[in-house]
Amino acid sequence: MPTTMTPQVRFRTIDGVQIRYADSGSSQKPAVLLTSPWPESIYAFAPMWASLAEHARLFAVDLPGFGASERREDLLSPRAMGEFLAHLIAEADLGTPHIVAPDVGTAAALFAAAAHPERIASAIVGTGGAAVPISSASRWRRGCSTPTPAGTAGWTRA
Questions:
Q1: SS (H, E, C) the chain
Q2: What CA–CA distance (Å, rounded) separates 156 from 110?
């Protein structure tokens, strides 16, 4: 798949839910999974798409129930949405992506990373509700329970 310089919006079914997504292509580059902020959509990434696509394969998604993606009640908890992200990573063949998850994607990304640390290279999260106990014996738990530069040391893979 050739690299696209603007988000080319598509729909596909993942885990039984139709989602809207954009994929820049170029599976030879490291993957970055972008979850759209609420009340925006994957179009929030349009202004930076071309610049980022030069360095990484971008895969932007409207999470279930947001943007133009189908809503399914059982996926609206942070834990269930985290499992959805883990399925998405596998089904979209993203390898071990870096996740950028502002707003509604914050808790989902943290739950996905805690439950499946081997599937996620790093996570950048923020401005979303994440005051939820996360059970994990991995580097993600240490960073979530100690949100300081020292607590997050070692989160990314070299």
A1: CCCCCCCCEEEEEECCEEEEEEECCCCCCCEEEEECCCCCCHHHHHHHHHHHHCCCEEEEECCCCCCCCCCCHHHCCHHHHHHHHHHHHHHCCCCCCEEEEECCHHHHHHHHHHHCHHHCCEEEEECCCCCCCCCCCCHHHHHHHCCCCCCCCCCCCC
A2: 14
pLDDT confidence bin for 126, thresholds 50/70/90? confident
Looking at residue 51, its pLDDT comes to: 92
Closest CA to 10 of 53, 54, 61: 61
Which domains are seen in the chain, by residue range? 9-145 (3.40.50.1820)
For 95, the token pair is 């390898």
Beta-carbon count within 10 A of 23 CB: 23
